[in-house]
């Protein structure tokens, strides 16, 4: 929380998104290039596969740095006081419905008859890129502002 207050919500979110973006791109490229998942891989393919496993953890680190922590802060800051409880409740309902939907969709996306693993990571990499554009161009910085100043940003 201190880091987010120090560097700002927007910069923290962008940093987390970039970590996720790079990680998902690496995984997508590795899965696209290295189609064989048997034990007869070359040493470089094994290292690339190990790197993809490591980058799965970096996706989680990027999520924790960005969307996972910032969503709760922004949710509490962007609504005017008279609609804050209702707005925050609706956003949290949307958030958890989205998480539920993803938990049901991703296993199907990973199947060979669907997007397959590489297509799934290309899809989420693209989605993350659009999230980066949205954050960069449309999300105002709210760190260090009063609630009244924050309300003025959205008018």
From TrEMBL:
Residues 1-143 form the Major facilitator superfamily (MFS) profile domain. GO terms for cellular component: membrane. Keywords: Membrane, Transmembrane, Transmembrane helix. It is a multi-pass membrane protein. It is found in: Membrane. It comes from the Eukaryota. PROSITE patterns: MFS. Signal peptide: none annotated. The keyword Transmembrane helix applies. The chain crosses the membrane at residues 12-29, 49-66, 119-139. The keyword Iron does not apply. GO terms for molecular function: carbohydrate:proton symporter activity. InterPro entries: MFS_dom (IPR020846), MFS_sugar_transport-like (IPR005828), MFS_Sugar_Transporters (IPR050360), MFS_trans_sf (IPR036259). Belongs to the major facilitator superfamily. Sugar transporter (TC 2.A.1.1) family. This is Major facilitator superfamily (MFS) profile domain-containing protein. The lineage of its organism: Eukaryota, Fungi, Dikarya, Ascomycota, Pezizomycotina.
């Amino acid at each position: 929380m201190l880091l987010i207050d120090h560097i700002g919500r927007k910069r923290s979110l962008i940093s987390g998104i970039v970590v996720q973006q790079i990680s998902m791109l690496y995984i997508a490229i590795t899965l696209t290039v290295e189609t064989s998942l048997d034990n007869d891989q070359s040493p470089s393919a094994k290292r690339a596969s190990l790197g993809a496993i490591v980058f799965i953890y970096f996706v989680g680190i990027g999520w924790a740095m960005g969307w996972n922590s910032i969503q709760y802060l922004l949710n509490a800051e962007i609504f005017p006081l008279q609609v804050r409880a209702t707005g925050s409740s609706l956003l949290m309902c949307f958030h958890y419905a989205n998480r539920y939907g993803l938990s049901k969709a991703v296993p199907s996306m990973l199947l060979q008859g669907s997007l397959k693993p590489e297509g799934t990571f290309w899809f989420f990499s693209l989605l993350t890129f659009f999230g980066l554009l949205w954050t960069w161009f449309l999300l105002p910085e709210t760190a260090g502002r009063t609630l009244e100043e924050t309300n003025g940003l959205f008018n």
